[in-house]
Amino acid sequence: MVKLIVIMLSAVLVNNVVLSQFMGICPFLGVSKVLKNCLGMGVAVIFVMLCATAVTYPVYQLLEYLNAEYLKTVAFILLIALFVQLVEIVLKKVMPPLYKALGVYLPLITTNCAVLGVTITNIDEGYTFAEAMVNALGTGVGFTLALLLFSGVRQKIDSTDSIPEMFKGVPSTLIAASIVSLSFMGFGGLFS
Hints:
Layout: H1 2-14, H2 25-31, H3 35-65, H4 72-94, H5 96-102, H6 113-124, H7 129-159, H8 170-183
């Protein structure tokens, strides 16, 4: 039980997929402008990460049994694309406003390397199925936390007049993202 808690906290804080590993930067920068979209994207990413982990773990076991581990990346990408399409269909039917709000960012989950990264990390770390699911949940929560935190930072930056004209827009966003990322370095020694 303690190991599961350590895996969860490590995935959320220490090894935050966006702020420490720099995966999933495209949706992080693209969606973080509006707080409501961040939460929707975060929930969708959590769902896809959990589903992708639940399916890729046994698929990897099958690939390992067949001595075809070299196919894991291709197999994982195909499975992730399948689940993103599933999320897109469900959101379109169940939550049309959220589907419209996410717009082009929803297909970004397919190319979100954070989703592929968590499935490969689960295999590389030798996690059991339960540990892999906890890691996927923690990674998704960490992704959502990064989106929500950065959304607040971006809203504050966009509402201020004290930024020089040449730093407005993308430059100030990237500088703010690097500062938020630096703040997560403080969690680095939390678990050894």
